[in-house]
Amino acid sequence: MSEAQLSRSGVDRAAILLLALGEQDAAQVLKHLGAKDVQRVGAAMAQLSSVTREEVSTVLTTFSSNVEQQTSFGVGTDDYIRKVLNEALGADKAGGVIDRILRGRSGRGLEALKWMESKAVGDILRNEHPQIISIVLSYLDSDQAAEILTQLPEAMRADILMRVATLDGVHPTALNELDEVLEKQFSGNGAGKSAGGFGGPKAAAEILNLVGASHEGMIMAQIAKVDEALSQKLQDLMFVFEDLAEVDDRGMQELLREVPGDKLILALKAADETLKQKIFKNMSERAGQMMKDDLEAKGPVRLSEVEAAQKEILTTAKRMSDEGRLALGGKGGEEYV
Predict the structure, then answer these.
(1) What is the value of pTM for the model shown?
(2) Hey, is 337 helix, strand or coil?
(3) Are 220 and 250 in contact (CB under 8 A)?
(4) Which residue pairs from 61-66 have beta carbons closer than 8 angstroms and sit at least 24 positions apart in sequence?
């Protein structure tokens, strides 16, 4: 892989490929992506600047080479689709897409929620039964679910998270009925998680990770009053911003390549010294000094802005962990031997 390609993130390379394809072909590709992926790639396309001819050539050559090496027309097509989707999306996200393509499953009503603003989804759900809300949040990606949870009445949040944590799949009939109800209000295509493949303590912990420290503390305190054992289990599974200090140096360097400098400065405003030193250590001496100077020069900022920046970096770290590009340590991190 050339130096030009290494300087761009995977999302940027996808954006370069789509821009090189032209409007019609790019539109056809985007039709097959989920809401979050379209938003990420679309944002990258809008922000791309100073793309060299060498970078375009490298991206196109690499893509062409990968297709030539992996495509096997008429032989093992299902295996090829599984392999490509798992490589592109990660095992968890790819599962639902594979279900739709290979098994014909659908989740059109629920899928439409992924394209809506979190506040709008919160307004729709606030009058529903907590069990219905917990199913919907379990279906959605954890970052969107976290945003929606903060839009719901404070008194409901702990109950909903406990229901997410204790959810052990949903009967396909019940899921189809919920999907049909939502389908009457929204349109959309695609599928997400299968009926038995979502919910549970890990899903609840991932949502809690992303709701922000102020909301997290209140929700955890309420859960602890009702079920101390569940509260401890969620705490053990959670991964917070300070736990990034446990990421190994190689993983931290990978992460820093994907994090915009302005977001990192904001996030570090409320970070402890251990994490700051870990990050500076994995920068070049010049870049580290510039970051320190920018931090010192940065005036007071709202806590909500700091938490939002930390949440965005955590989301990136979790995505990279799912892709096998870094190992998350600390609470909830999988043990490596």
Answers:
(1) 0.44
(2) coil
(3) no
(4) 62/1, 62/5, 62/13, 63/17
97 plus 85 within the same structural domain: yes
154 and 175 belong to one structural domain: yes
Angle in degrees, 0-180, between the axes of helices 273-281 and 261-268, rounded to the nearest 10: 150
What is the length of the chain? 337
Report the number of distinct structural domains present in the chain: 4
Same domain assignment for residues 17 and 33? yes
Choosing from 218, 237, 256, the residue where a domain stops is 237
CB of 204 closer than 8 Å to CB of 235: no
Are 249 and 217 found together in one domain?
no
What are the tens digits of pLDDT across the range 267-291?
A: 998 888 889 999 999 999 898 899 8
113 plus 231 within the same structural domain: yes
Cβ neighbourhood burial of 331 (10 Å; 0-12, 13-18, 19+): middle
